[in-house]
Structures are given as structure tokens and as C-alpha cells.
Write a structure and sequence with these properties.
Tetracycline Repressor, domain 2, mainly alpha
């Protein structure tokens, strides 16, 4: 199969022109999200999606030619929603504490959408058609994380050490993901401890006297 044909096969075959068609596609995408959330990438099958959506095999393949095309649609919808949630968490309040609060709140909101689906999409191969949405979300998250690190280093010109950003972004995401697994994603105690984790870790990474004074002034 040529590269051009491969790209075409990952796209929806038919553009819906009627409300009924759009509703059918939405039902299939929602069913795909439910199956992917429950089964993960390797357990995901279009046959189970057909059963959950209550549509015929021909109907599903009329809009989604293969598994990758359907997962791409699920991924686009999920990461677009996640990006909206992340951006909605920005309060505009000044100060390090509020910056960290917004950062933590944004990731709690993102993972509260569907933590299992979020993890399944991150762990699965990214179909070409969903890469842009996934990359936009991840870029926004890392940008927010870098902004927090820079603030602790003394303002917008402060260094955002790549290793610090990687550790911090992974730690926050992992804590929230595991909390979701235990059924406690919105606990005030969890948010408070995450804020303490972020401020404590970043405070410990400050290296120069000037950075210490800047941290003390904004904390």
C-alpha cells in the first residue's frame, strides 16, 4: 500500500451530511471510547464497538474503514476535550501558589474526563489522524509545567531545566492517574498534597541565592 493510500485509509470514508449520520458517527465514537477505555489498545476490537454502539458492521465500516481510523476519531475528540479543560483551569491569579494551584487543578480536570481512556490513548500507537490533537495537548501541558518551573527560578527569563520539567510533569500525571485508579480523583487532600509536592520539589531545585530570594518573595 502506498503512503498516499495509507493516509486515505485512516480517514473517515464518508462525510456525514444529515443529522442522523452525525448521530451515528457520534454513537460509534462514544462506543469506541468506552471499549478502548475498558480493554486498552491490544484488547480493542471493532466487533465489540459494533455491539456496544448497536450498529451494523456495514454501518461502522461505512464511516471508519479500520481500527486505526476509529481510534483516531476517539483520540481527536478526547484530546480536544482535554486541551479545553487544561486551558479552562487558568484563573489569571498572580503568585506562585496560584500558578501551582491552576497547574494541579488543570491536570485533575483532564484526568477526571476518563482516566482509563486517557492512559490507553497515551500508551497506544498514535494514528496519524489524531497526532495533532494529542501533540497539542501534550505541548500545552509541558508549556504549563515549564511556566511553573520558570516562575520558581525567578520569572519568565528563569531557566526551565528539561530534566526538572520531565520529572515534575511525570510525577503530577502519575499521582493523579493512580488516584483515579483508586477512585479518589477530586479529593481536596490529594490536590493539597500535590501542590505541596510541586512547591517542595521546585523549592529544592533552586540553586542560587537570587533564586532563593525570588522564591521566598513569591511563595
Amino acid at each position: 500500500m502506498s503512503t498516499h493510500d495509507a493516509r486515505l485509509s485512516a480517514k473517515v470514508r464518508r462525510v456525514p451530511r444529515q443529522a442522523r449520520s452525525r448521530a451515528t458517527i457520534e454513537a460509534i465514537v462514544q462506543a469506541g471510547a468506552a471499549v478502548l477505555s475498558a480493554r486498552g489498545w491490544f484488547g480493542f476490537t471493532t466487533n465489540e464497538v459494533i455491539d456496544v454502539a448497536g450498529v451494523g458492521t456495514a454501518t461502522l465500516y461505512q464511516y471508519f474503514p479500520n481500527k486505526d481510523a476509529l481510534v483516531a476519531a476517539v483520540g481527536r475528540q478526547h484530546f480536544d476535550h482535554a486541551l479545553e479543560e487544561l486551558r479552562r483551569s487558568v484563573s489569571g491569579r498572580s503568585g506562585l501558589r496560584h500558578l501551582v494551584d491552576d497547574f494541579v487543578q488543570g491536570m485533575v480536570a483532564v484526568h477526571s474526563i476518563d482516566p482509563w481512556l486517557h492512559r490507553a490513548l497515551l500508551d497506544s500507537p498514535a494514528p496519524a489522524e489524531s497526532r495533532a490533537a494529542r501533540a497539542a495537548f501534550q505541548a500545552e501541558y509541558l508549556s504549563r509545567c515549564e511556566a511553573v518551573v520558570r516562575a520558581f527560578r525567578g520569572g519568565p527569563k528563569g531557566a526551565a531545566d528539561a530534566a526538572v520539567v520531565q520529572v515534575l510533569s511525570s510525577a503530577v500525571e502519575s499521582v493523579i492517574y493512580n488516584a483515579n485508579r483508586n477512585g479518589t480523583p477530586r479529593m481536596p487532600e490529594l490536590k493539597r498534597e500535590l501542590v505541596a509536592l510541586v512547591t517542595g520539589y521546585l523549592g529544592a531545585t533552586i540553586r542560587s541565592p537570587g533564586e532563593v530570594l525570588a522564591f521566598a518573595a513569591h511563595a
